[in-house]
Amino acid sequence: MSRNREGAIIGQLVFDGRDIDILEGDTLGASLMRAGVLMTRRSRSGEPRGLYCAIGVCHDCLVSLDGVRNVRACMTIARPGAKVHAGGTRDESG
Ligand code: FES
User: I need a surface site. Which of 14, 33, 84, 87 has the fewest CB within 10 A?
Assistant: First the structure.
């Protein structure tokens, strides 16, 4: 049985105004990392944070997804049309 290393592009999400391709089965974090987005939020002291554990433990990857705060990018399947914002803060863009 053969297997594609790269799945098919099923659509795009929008991360802070930037279109990001989504491959079938991707998490938000995987989609962002593939696109070169390494920072998903800032710490209280302003330091950049991004995917770290990638298994839902560290909470460094928190984003806002369609207006819902504090979503773990590494544990959430990406879907086309999703609006994602860095910081895990409220989606101000509507
Ligand atoms: S990278 Fe650790 S919870 Fe997502």
Answer: 14
Structural domain count, the chain: 1
Atom of ligand 1 nearest to the CA of 51: 1
Closest among 63, 38, 58 to 48, alpha carbons compared = 38
Residue 86 DSSP symbol: E
In this structure, the residues whose C-beta lies within 6 A of any atom of ligand 1 are 51-54, 56-61, 72, 74
Answer yes or no: are the C-beta atoms of 65 and 78 closer than 8 Å.
no
Mutate to test the pocket of ligand 1, among 27, 32, 57 (most ligand atoms within 8 A of CB): 57
**How high is the mean pLDDT in each 10-residue block of the chain (94 residues)?**
66 97 96 96 92 96 96 97 81 40
CATH classification at residue 49 = 3.10.20.30
Q: Look at residue 89 in the predicted model and tell me its pLDDT.
A: 46
